[in-house]
Amino acid sequence: MKLIGHEPDFSGLLGDKRLEHRAKLISSSLLLSKSSTIHSATRSEAEQKGFYRFLGNDSVSESVLIKEMTTRCQRNVSEREVIVIQDSSSLGLSRNANNIKAGSGLGLVGNKKGLGFLSHVSIVLDANNESILGFCDIQLWHRKEDKSNNTTRIYKKQAVESKESYKWIRASNQAKDTLSGASGITIIQDREGDIYEQFALIPDNKTSLIVRSRDNRKLADGQKLYTALEEAPVLGTYAIDIQGDIRKNQIQRKVELEVRCVPVTLQKPQVGVSKGIPNQLNLYAVEVREKGNTSKDAICWRLLTNIPVFSFEDALQIVNRYAQRWYIEQLFRLLKKQGYQIENSMLETGWAIRKLFVMVLNAALRVMQLYLAYGKEDCQPLEEVFSQKEIECLKAIEKNHLPITGKTTNPYAQQKLSWASWIIARLGGWKGNSNQRAAGPIIIKRGLDKFETMFQGWLLHADTS
């Protein structure tokens, strides 16, 4: 199968070879930078001014930058079965509000008082080994007015196309278009994606949905969805370890989960559904619930899908697919405070910050590739992420700079990305003990930053020796 490529190619997209060269230079610089700040990403004052001019240039639109990324993703998915994980995030820029030009692509976020913009991102994975294939859709927008009335009767009666929540359906349609060369597409969404029209419009012979239920919907037989799941027999149980979190006052524990599933026929809601949508939809509902725990913190996922589910194994596959949604939460975490710190940008217009956000998304791909390869025997080849010289440097680091003991030996083959991920995690502060919690994207990011510094020194030494 063709190697996955993530090198940006702006040829012919910006109508000016100088701008296209500058776009590629910025992409390369952000890949090596510790943060998204222009000062950190540039090596000279002239380069810094060039970056500012590029991001402030009205001829460079965020839509063109997004198109380059989705086109690249399109090339990577040919004949692969893929997973599309969607989610939204707000980017708060209130800290620098006094320096940002008014009316320049920002609006209300968070508590309806903060300044910033919103994003809806669709990241694409290979369904077989979780290799990242790119982004098939990126939506950016800002709210021009207070949306606090979005639970009122007036809002609920509006056509779905006029609601902000239409972003989920728009992204799913874009996924089908961009990923038309894939052999199969499974789209994964959180509760916000629980939209009746979506289940009617999106699934086809190679496109499936797995969406966490938000509403206790009415079924065609008059019963409620959650009641039908509660009355369904337990298909099986399995145990998982829940990591503790000191910040949330949560202790580590082992829990047993019960799995149920039932075929359901949803009844069309009486209000707010577009014309031409079927009155009933046949789907499958899956529930995974923590056994013996009735507290509000108990684990309980209720999932809706058009994928046939008849057995415990079928249901468990749906649950495991949905669990991959965690990856996009980690991506957003990487973009913010402890990672690329996009919310600390000092650029003077919202449009420039939005363009920077798109380009930082591309830089974050490399970190996420390493994060997803961590601990996996079956992962993408090393040469898809690192150059030959970088691989030679990684070998030298492993041999000469990492303490090796019986418990801290790299267990992965050198031709696999997991081998490099283990080294990068060690550089980021992970101790290498198999009993230790797996390295997260922030640790991987720190390790990659340290590696880039070491790599430049290694190149300098090679040139002078």
Kindly describe this structure.
This protein has helices spanning 17-32, 38-41, 45-56, 62-76, 153-157, 166-178, 196-201, 225-231, 312-323, 326-335, 350-373, 388-400, 417-427, 441-464, and strands at 81-92, 107-109, 114-126, 132-141, 184-189, 207-212, 236-242, 253-267, 280-290, 300-305. The mean pLDDT is 88. The protein contains 14 helices and ten strands. It is an alpha+beta fold. It has two domains: 80-348, Transposase Inhibitor Protein From Tn5, Chain A, domain 1 (Alpha-Beta Complex), CATH 3.90.350; 374-464, Transferase Inhibitor Protein From Tn5, Chain (Transferase Inhibitor Protein From Tn5, Chain A, domain2).
Task: Give short descriptive properties of this protein.
2 domains; alpha+beta; Transposase Inhibitor Protein From Tn5, Chain A, domain 1; Transferase Inhibitor Protein From Tn5, Chain A, domain2; 14 helices; 465 residues; 10-stranded mixed beta sheet
Radius of gyration, in Å, reads 24 Å
- 3D shape: globular
How is the CATH topology of the largest domain named? Transposase Inhibitor Protein From Tn5, Chain A, domain 1
- Helix % is 25-40%
CATH architecture label of the largest domain: Alpha-Beta Complex
Structural class: alpha+beta
Annotated CATH homologous superfamily of the largest domain: Transposase Inhibitor Protein From Tn5, Chain A, domain 1
Low-pLDDT parts are: none
Secondary-structure element order, N to C: HHHHEEEEHHEHEHEEEEHHHHHH
Distance between the termini: 39 Å
Main pleated-sheet profile: 10 strands, mixed
